[in-house]
From TrEMBL:
Keywords associated with the record: Isomerase, Rotamase
One of the record's GO molecular function terms: peptidyl-prolyl cis-trans isomerase activity
Highest rank taxon of the organism: Bacteria
Reactions this protein catalyses: [protein]-peptidylproline (omega=180) = [protein]-peptidylproline (omega=0)
Residue intervals of the PpiC domain: 135-237
Identification of the protein by name: peptidylprolyl isomerase
EC number of this enzyme: 5.2.1.8
Entries under PANTHER family matching the protein: PEPTIDYL-PROLYL CIS-TRANS ISOMERASE HP_0175-RELATED, PEPTIDYLPROLYL ISOMERASE
Family: Belongs to the PpiC/parvulin rotamase family.
High-level lineage: Bacteria, Pseudomonadati, Pseudomonadota, Betaproteobacteria, Neisseriales
InterPro entries: Nitrogen_fix_NifM (IPR014282), PPIase_dom_sf (IPR046357), PPIase_PpiC (IPR000297), PPIase_PpiC_CS (IPR023058), PrsA_foldase (IPR050245), Trigger_fact/SurA_dom_sf (IPR027304)
Coiled-coil intervals, chain numbering: none
UniProt cross-references to Gene3D superfamilies, sorted A to Z: 3.10.50.40
Length: 274
């Protein structure tokens, strides 16, 4: 079980994001147990006839080792981290070769899964049509004046007066919305002309959401109030709700369904291992 340290290292990083040495006693025990189970499963995989057909080329092993080394600023820190996790470079190379061989076996097994046809994908599409519906989205900008009774100029009455003044300017020159947002808005979006991007219903504060989804494209709202303060909102564009056509999503759907079949093929094969 020389490669067990590598599996413990992987498990510790996946579940806790830190080296084994930094784990609590209980965490170390749980990591060890999971690593042992993984090692035992890999032993079964590598004892199968399929494993005999899988050979790991030295170049693939070297590439995997180089990828790991490149995550460190220098060779010294790489070796120090290996030592902290109970490994050395020789042990790591053995573990990587084993991992690559296990992956090759699982890839070979997955390739036995029947191919998903376009007809299969289209049947799935119509049976699950709700998954392919896209809600209406709206592109919006806003200008925010915050309410802060501890800050001069931002008392409620002052803030309202400022937003009303901005709203009056917009009524006369709506094309200046982005310029006025940059000049007056107290939201970080001011640097982008007040852009909120594309949003769907429910993403904004209710006070803004209800208004935005009742506006026409290009329309500017009256003064609105949210927990952040006072706003003026502009709906710049509208994308109606739609159902993605099959031809548009066909290739991604074929790939997704094929991946699912391959995972099921692997799981079924693994369950059959003695």
């Amino acid at each position: 079980m020389q490669t067990l340290a590598y599996l413990e290292f992987q498990t510790a990083q996946a579940h806790h994001g830190k080296p084994v040495a930094q784990l609590s006693t209980a965490e170390k025990q749980a990591v060890h147990q999971e690593a042992v189970r993984q090692w035992q499963l890999e032993e079964k995989i590598l004892a199968t006839p399929e494993a005999l057909a899988c050979i790991v080329e030295p170049a693939s092993q070297d590439d995997a080792l180089t990828t790991l080394r490149n995550r460190y600023p220098d060779r010294g820190s790489f070796l120090a981290d290996l030592a902290a996790n109970g490994m050395n470079e020789t042990l790591l190379k053995e573990a990587l070769a084993r991992e690559l061989r296990v992956d090759a076996v699982l890839t070979l097994v997955a390739a036995r899964a029947p191919r998903v046809s376009e007809q299969d994908a289209e049947i799935f599409y119509w049976q699950h049509i709700e998954r392919f519906k896209v809600p209406e989205t709206r592109e919006a900008r806003h200008i925010l004046v915050t309410i802060n009774d501890t800050l001069a100029g931002n008392h409620r009455d002052e803030a309202r007066a400022r937003i009303e003044s901005i709203a009056a300017q917009l009524a006369a020159q709506p094309e200046r919305f982005a310029d006025l947002a940059l000049q007056y808005s107290e939201c970080p979006t001011a640097l982008q002309g007040g852009e909120l991007g594309w949003v769907k219903e429910g993403q904004l504060y209710p006070e803004l959401d209800t208004t935005l989804f009742g506006m026409a494209a290009g329309q500017i709202s009256a003064t609105l109030e949210s927990p952040l303060g006072f706003h003026v909102l502009q709906c710049t564009d509208i994308r109606p709700a739609e159902t993605k056509p099959f031809d548009e999503i066909k290739q991604k759907l074929l790939a997704s369904l094929q991946e699912q079949r391959e995972r099921r093929q692997q799981k079924s094969w693994l369950r059959g291992l003695s």
